[in-house]
Design brief:
Number of domains: 2
Largest sheet: 7 strands, parallel
Radius of gyration: 21 Å
CATH architecture of the largest domain: 3-Layer(aba) Sandwich
Strand content: 5-15%
CATH class of the largest domain: Alpha Beta
Number of strands: 7
Oligomer: single chain
Structural class: alpha/beta
Number of helices: 12
CATH superfamily of the largest domain: P-loop containing nucleotide triphosphate hydrolases
Strand order of the largest sheet: 3-2-4-1-5-6-7
Helix content: 40-55%
C-alpha cells in the first residue's frame, strides 16, 4: 500500500467508514506481510481506543457476557468493536466462528462492528492475525473494543500485551478457580467475573476465589475485583461496565510498549523465516553428517544476514 493510500485509509477510519475498516482488515488477514503495514497505520493514527480483553476457560460464557455488555454500552450510545477468536481445527485450519452467533442481535447495528476469526492454533489465546486486527481497530472511532480469546486454559497471558483492561471469566463448579491461580491470574487480570450466578455453586466459587486472592500477594499492590453475574443480570452487568469505565478514566491511554515489543518480535520472526529458505542452509540441513557445529554456523549466518 502506497503512502497516499495509507493516509487516505487513516482518514477514512477516522471518519468512521465501516467499509474502509472491513476492507483493510481483510487486506491484513490475506496479506503475506501485513506487520509493517499495520505498524505504519498504528504509528500515524492519533487515536487510541481502549481494548478490553475477555479471557477464560471454554464454556465460561464469555460471548454471552460480551453480548450483554454491548447492549448496556449501546444504551449509552457508545460505538463498539468486537474481535471474537474461535478455536481452529488442527487438521484443516478451519473454524466454526460460532461466537458471532451469540451476538447476532447486534449484527445489524451500524454502531457495532463484530469480526470473527480463527485462532490459527495459537496457544496464547490470541493469534498473530487477531493481534494485528486489534491494532487496526484501535485506530477506528470506537469507544470500546472487546477482544474475546479462544479460551485455552492456562496459556492466556498474551491478551495482557494487547488489552488496557483484562477480564477473566469463570464458571462455577468446574474447578476453574484453582486452575486460574495456577496460571498466574494475579499478574494478568484486572477483574474476575464468576459467571452463571444462577447456579448454586456460584457463591462457593466467589468465596473460594476471594480467599485465595486475600492470601496471595498481588503484584504492585494491584487490587483485583471479583464480581458475580450472568448474561441476563442487567443490573450487575451495568455495575461491571461502570467499574471498567472508572478504571479506564484513571488510565493514561497511550500506545503500549508491549505492543511495540510484539511488533519487533514478529518482524524478527518473519526475517528469520525468510533466511531459512536459503538454498545453502537447506543443503547443510540435508547433509548426513549434520551436527551441532553446522547448527552454530547456520545461526551465525542468519544473524549476519539480519544485519
Amino acid at each position: 500500500m502506497k503512502s497516499m493510500e495509507l493516509q487516505q485509509t487513516i482518514e477514512d477510519l477516522k471518519a468512521g467508514d465501516r467499509l474502509a475498516l472491513s476492507k483493510f482488515l481483510t487486506h491484513v488477514e490475506t496479506s503475506d506481510n501485513p506487520i509493517e503495514l499495520v505498524l505504519k497505520l498504528y504509528n500515524r493514527a492519533d487515536c487510541k481506543t481502549p481494548i478490553i480483553g475477555v479471557t477464560g476457560f471454554p464454556g465460561a460464557g464469555k460471548s454471552s457476557l460480551i453480548n450483554s455488555f454491548i447492549s448496556i454500552l449501546r444504551s449509552k450510545e457508545k460505538k463498539i468493536g468486537v474481535i471474537a477468536v474461535d478455536p481452529s481445527s488442527l487438521i484443516s485450519g478451519g473454524s466454526l466462528l460460532g461466537d458471532r452467533t451469540r451476538m447476532e442481535q447486534h449484527s445489524s447495528d451500524e454502531n457495532v462492528f463484530i469480526r470473527s476469526l480463527s485462532s490459527d492454533g495459537a496457544l496464547g489465546g490470541i493469534s498473530h492475525k487477531s493481534f494485528l486486527l486489534s491494532m487496526v481497530m484501535a485506530t477506528f472511532n470506537f469507544d470500546f473494543i472487546f477482544v474475546e480469546t479462544v479460551g485455552v486454559g492456562q496459556s492466556e497471558s498474551d491478551i495482557t500485551k494487547l488489552a488496557d483492561f483484562s477480564i477473566l471469566t469463570l464458571a462455577p463448579g468446574l474447578g476453574d478457580s484453582i486452575q486460574a491461580m495456577k496460571g498466574g491470574v494475579l499478574e494478568i487480570v484486572d477483574l474476575i467475573l464468576v459467571n452463571k450466578s444462577d447456579k448454586p455453586e456460584s457463591s462457593q466459587t466467589f468465596h473460594q476465589l476471594k480467599s485465595i486472592i486475600n492470601m496471595a500477594q498481588a503484584p504492585d499492590g494491584k487490587n483485583i475485583k471479583i464480581m458475580v453475574t450472568n448474561e441476563k443480570d442487567q443490573k450487575e452487568n451495568t455495575k461491571i461496565i461502570s467499574h471498567i469505565e472508572k478504571y479506564l478514566k484513571k488510565l493514561k491511554l497511550e500506545k503500549n510498549k508491549e505492543s511495540y515489543l510484539w511488533f519487533v518480535r514478529q518482524i524478527l520472526y518473519e526475517k528469520i523465516e525468510q533466511c531459512l529458505v536459503d538454498q545453502e542452509i537447506h543443503e547443510k540441513l540435508n547433509k548426513k553428517t549434520f551436527n551441532e557445529k553446522d547448527i552454530s554456523e547456520i545461526v551465525k549466518r542468519i544473524i549476519k544476514d539480519l544485519r
